[in-house]
Amino acid sequence: MRDRLxxxxxxxTNSFISGQEISTKLGxxxxxxxxxxxxxxxxxxxxxxxxRRGYRITHTPDLANADEIKARLHTKKMGHSIIYKKExxxxxEVAHELARNGAEEGTxxxxxxxxKGKGRLNREWxxxxxxxxxxxxxxxxxxxPQKAPQLTLLTAVAVTEGIMEATGIQAQIKWPNxxxxxxxxxxxxxxxxxxxxxxxQAVIIGIGLNINQQAEHFPAELLTKATSLALENDGTTFxxxxxxxxxxxxxxxxxxxxxQYGFKEIRKRWESLAVTIGKExxxxxxxxxxxxLAEGITEDGVLLLKKQDGTTEYIxxxxxx
Length: 321
Ligand code: BTN
Known about the structure:
Keywords: ATP-binding, Biotin, DNA-binding, Ligase, Nucleotide-binding, Repressor, Transcription, Transcription regulation. Biotin binds at residues 114, 185. The protein has helices at 2-11, 19-26, 30-42, 66-71, 91-100, 148-167, 240-261, 264-273, and strands at 46-50, 54-59, 82-88, 108-114, 132-139, 172-174, 178-181, 184-196, 199-210, 280-284, 289-297, 303-306, 312-315, 319-320. By secondary structure, it is α+β, with helices and mostly antiparallel strands. The protein has three domains: 2-59, Winged helix-like DNA-binding domain superfamily/Winged helix DNA-binding domain (Arc Repressor Mutant, subunit A); 66-273, 2-Layer Sandwich (BirA Bifunctional Protein, domain 2); 280-320, SH3 type barrels (Roll). A hairpin with a 2-residue loop joins strand 8 and strand 9 (199-210). Helix 2 crosses helix 3 (30-42), helix 6 (148-167) crosses helix 7 and helix 6 (148-167) packs across helix 8 (264-273). The radius of gyration is 21 Å and the shape is globular. The termini are far apart. It binds biotin. Residues 90-92, 114, 117-120, 123, 125, 127, 134-136, 178, 188-190, 206-208 line the site of biotin.
């Protein structure tokens, strides 16, 4: 109910909406409307109430809870079920558990902070409270496990487009799935899978996105290579719910496209958004360092590196300089 009330109030941000109209649209009494409005005020919303005109939101706190996200979503599946937690070890762990217990496709787990945020290659993911978006999404595509990496690339496209739509800031992808602004990392994606030998049961896509951190919020060693959307916007912050809802919307669009038409268009879009492609780069893998021209990616997201001797090296996992 609260998300539908927020939706009504948000859709009429510049104009008033009467208590009567809210009560009719939501099918609840005027007293119930008033109680919900008081509850919103307790949660940090500021609302103007004018006799005979109604209510108008004048300040929305930066909350990334289920009500705020749902109030902005018009999706068919993504985010229909949102589990919001103040603190978790990792949203990936919670989502895995939910997926094992049959959670529906599109379920999102979002947390204010993670005690043990996980990055790629078993790295730690710094997840301070209240400034970023730390969330995991459950998908259940009917595909073979080998296709799962395509969903990581699909997500990178969706996150990049979602950021640009919600903030107007230009973002790019660095292979395999870092999202960069001005050459600094602002988001990362971690894809994990539950599967049988020939069928995926669930894909858990974890997305970590730095949104409102200021410089002092970053550990010193990260400042040269990491950034937040606010830092790239002269310190002015964003509503995290605007950003996550834009991303979920894009994931849904591309995911439905993927299920119907496959990966071809997504790969093209990925390559057009990728900063890595067409550049001379150095890939540091677990076993060696290879330099060459990044030519593109394969259907599975493997990076094709053309070396000076003319041969092409397939890079499966590496850090890129
Ligand atoms: C990377 O190394 O770039 C991937 C980082 C992914 C971090 C996100 S935050 C939400 C989800 N929960 C985790 O523990 N990790 C992912």
